[in-house]
Each structure stands twice: as structure tokens, then as C-alpha cells.
Amino acid sequence: MNLPNKITLLRIFLIPLIVFFLLYSPKLSMHIVAAIIFVLASLTDVIDGYIARNKNQVTTLGKLLDPIADKLLTSSALISLVALRRIPLWAAWIVVIIIGRDFCISGFRTIAATQGFIISASNLAKYKTIVEIVAILCLILSDWQKDFLYIAGRGLGMKEFGLGLLFIAMMFAVISGAEYFKSFWEKIDQNIGM
């Protein structure tokens, strides 16, 4: 197993720690630790991709494992935030759409791999991931800073800001999900026609 794949596995192994520190105690210090681990885990996504491309260590396993690690990381954090009510129950539908889309894309990728092709992440999907990570980070830390951003003289808390970003991430998820679906069917049609 090469270094990028080991880094991807590290990201997966960090996930239970994030959930533990989020759900173990309502203390701010625990949530700050969870936020730090979440940031480190998110950075491993950038690091493993950089090493894989620059050292010519891109593998089929890495192409399949990397997006699964990303989905596990964000899904576990989102579910924990719903449990903590950082994402209110009325907004849980946003989480369901994001996670549902991620499961569908993982299914498409698995089927594509059995057919001998890879569905790469689109730019919009990458933006979705970045916005989603920032939203999750804001929501993890939302009890720490109440009014951190002022728009038109009105204080905006991290929770509201995080929820707004999460809504944007959901919109990106829906649009990029449709792009994946289109790309998947075009490639399936090409394979069937061969």
C-alpha cells in the first residue's frame, strides 16, 4: 500500500475520534479538540491527493477509497451535529439530501469500477466538499462565538453562518449529483455499445 492510501486510511481512523470528542461531553474544550481533529482529517484529503498526483502514485484503490473516506468523514460529523442539535431538527432534511447524494455517487462509482471506468470528481463537487467542511467546522464551534460576522449591522452567529453554508453545500450536492448521474449514464451507454 502506497503513502497516499495510508494517509486516506488515517483519515478514516480519525473519524471515531471526532465523533467521540463531539458526543462525549458538551464542554467547549472537547469540541475544540473535535474541530482540530476534523481540520487535520480534512487536510489529509489534500495531502494524499497532492502526493498521489505529484509522485505518480494514483491507484484504483485510492480513487475508490478517497471519496469513501471523504463521505464517512462528513457524514459522521453531520449526523453528530444533528444529535447535538447544532443542526436543528427542522434542518435535518439538508443532511439527509447531502448524505443520500453521497451514497448514490458511491454506488455509481462502484458500478463504474466493475465496468472498467472511473467517475472523477467534478469541480462543483470539490466546491461542495470545501463549503461543507467549512460549514461543519462552523457548526462544531458554534457555541464558542455567538456573533462573529456583521452584515448590515446585524450580528450573525457561527450557527446561522454554518447552516447557510450547509444549505449552499446541499445545492452544490444536488447539481453535482445530477452531473455525476449524467456522466455515469453516458459512460455506461458507451460501454454497452462497445
UniProtKB/TrEMBL annotation:
Entry's localization field: Membrane
MF GO annotations: CDP-diacylglycerol-glycerol-3-phosphate 3-phosphatidyltransferase activity
Keywords: Lipid biosynthesis, Lipid metabolism, Membrane, Phospholipid biosynthesis, Phospholipid metabolism, Transferase, Transmembrane, Transmembrane helix
Domain of life: Bacteria
One GO-annotated biological process of the protein: glycerophospholipid biosynthetic process
Presence of keyword Flavoprotein: no
Enzyme class, spelled out: transferase
Chief subcellular location: membrane
Pfam families (alphabetical): CDP-OH_P_transf
Keyword Lipid metabolism found: yes
Matches recorded under PROSITE patterns: CDP_ALCOHOL_P_TRANSF (PS00379)
InterPro entries: CDP-alcohol_PTase-I (IPR050324), CDP-OH_P_trans (IPR000462), CDP-OH_PTrfase_TM_dom (IPR043130), CDP_ALCOHOL_P_TRANSF_CS (IPR048254), Phosphatidylglycerol_P_synth (IPR004570)
Transmembrane domains' residue ranges: 7-24, 30-52, 90-112, 162-181
Lipid bilayer topology: Multi-pass membrane protein
Family: Belongs to the CDP-alcohol phosphatidyltransferase class-I family.
Designated name of the protein: CDP-diacylglycerol--glycerol-3-phosphate 3-phosphatidyltransferase
Species, as recorded: Candidatus Schekmanbacteria bacterium RBG_16_38_11
